[in-house]
User: Fold this.
Amino acid sequence: MVYDVAIIGAGVTGAMTARELSRYELSVCVIEKESDVAMGASKANSGIVHAGFDAKSGTLKARFNVEGSLMMEKITKELGVKYKRNGSMVLAFREEERDVLLELYERGIRNGVGGLEIINGERIRELEENVSDKALYALHAKTGAIVCPYELTIAAMGHAMDNGVELFLESRVLDISCDNGAFEVETTKGTIKARYIINAAGLYADKISRMVGDDSFEITPRKGEYLLLDKELCGLVGHTIFKVPTKMGKGVLVSPTVDGNILLGPTSEDIYDKEDTQTTRVGIEKIINSAAECVKNIPFGSVITSFTGLRATTKNGDFLITAPKPNFLNLAGIDSPGLTAAPAIAVHVSNMLKDMGLELVEKKDYTSTRKIYQVEKSRYNKMVCRCEKVSEGKIIEAIHTNPKAITVDAIKRRTRSGMGRCQGGFCMPSVVSILARELGIDVCEVRKSGGDSRIVVGKKE
Assistant:
């Protein structure tokens, strides 16, 4: 079979693009090297739907940030994904920083962002009583919002699959060649043929592009560490709180999540190793010091986990959306505000493909909502995860709903089982047992994530 379109990479950009293309009479597949979708930057970022005042006017980041922000509420509703328009504040602690806020305000107006205002310290603390008394001014963006990044990615990919898109997991791309007008993508699980290729491979987009002879850019990983606070801190802040940005990004934020936790981070450090997701003492100290400057009385003893995400950056500082070869598209350097921009990028890509000659005929049987696997009602009466109140029924749903969860971590991302205070200490054995039963495998074959990450390595006879 020769697919019309093959998308390499199942992060939020690839998933949103697959969903957009699933509207049309096309054969589409997504090729992903990991055991699940949302395994790169899409599972470890701030989950912020940025208003759009930060990106420089005239850039792709500015355009797609604003367009994506306007699309996000409708899309999350269609996908059944949690979304909250909580607003954001950029804090200034010195008089001279007010000029930066003015610059951001004016840039936001040029970019087409509504609901912007600069407020003084008194108004800041009317809106957020726990913000530092040292904050003199803030840029208040009423259209800022929050989502769960991996939930959005999973839902978008699932909806695409419901509409006919095929997903190939644990299929690392080894090489790409062209034969008789079609690309041949050699993977660790066989060869996939397609007329068009979309390179949405995140940190490895440069490597994929070099496979077709394009070495025009290089991806640098930008490391960002985070701390997550227990849900008992829900309400510490309502807005997403930033300090004035630097050339390395928007800095450490303090933000609620849609699931009721408080998120602190990220740090920002350019590194060389595209697999280095270790947290560090230095990074954690940076987060603590910076967050404490913005928000009073943060109980850092209530941290329940820490994690690290890697953003794919390029030297030009903008999204790289190009067609370096016929029928081959690069979606590279999609760092912040990539999550916000993803829906708009997906529409742009479909238009690019149309301009390249791909015929787009809308499906008559397109389904506008996701198909959720139906589980026997009694299964919802058994509680598996006490911290997050996740039932057996929800776990079974996750195993059988596109994209199907086949590992413990995949269950975690879909149901939040294991994301609470005990971090899976109570529920993991039950999750392993349910996975084994529903997948028809031995418990020794159940994996935590991908590869050979087995949890049970043997059974006593």
About this structure: The CA atoms of residues 127 and 227 lie 24 Å apart. The first helix runs from residue 12 to 21.
